[in-house]
Predict the structure.
Amino acid sequence: MGEAKDEKALPGISLRQFEQSDVDHFMAWAGNDQVTQFCRWDTFTCREEALKYLKEVVIPHPWFRAICLENRPIGSIYVSPGTEKDRCRGEIGYALSSMYWGRGIATSAVTTAVASIFRDLPNLKRIEGLVFAENKGSQRVLEKAGFTKEGLLRNYFTVKGKTRDIVIYSFLPSELSC
């Protein structure tokens, strides 16, 4: 019989804001097609484009963090708040270097992020996870982090030239454990 993992407290895993000096670590996963296949953004193929993205998008973003192992970025996690009409909700997204998949790191990062997000972005009343239907690993991450599966959005996004079905998940502040 296997032991249950404490997904909330993996040793050495932390979240922090990105810095421009993280560009080479960022490229390690953001330049990997295996990782970015489920991302809405394209794989970064040159360091200069990645640095520009960090400077212009990531660093000024209201909630975009590096997932770190021993303070070294191995992935990213963000919540994008809605616009004025839907500012009560935010969408979570994350990417993790493929060499760290299956270790509970993404689940730990999502669990840690959710607790911070509702404090840092007090207008949010829900966090949504929109996952490609074929991305079973990411669905497991959200389920293990306590998100509720709400349903399937058919032909919801066209990403990288392909229209995809999306599974939608949500998390509400009332679902935070003490």
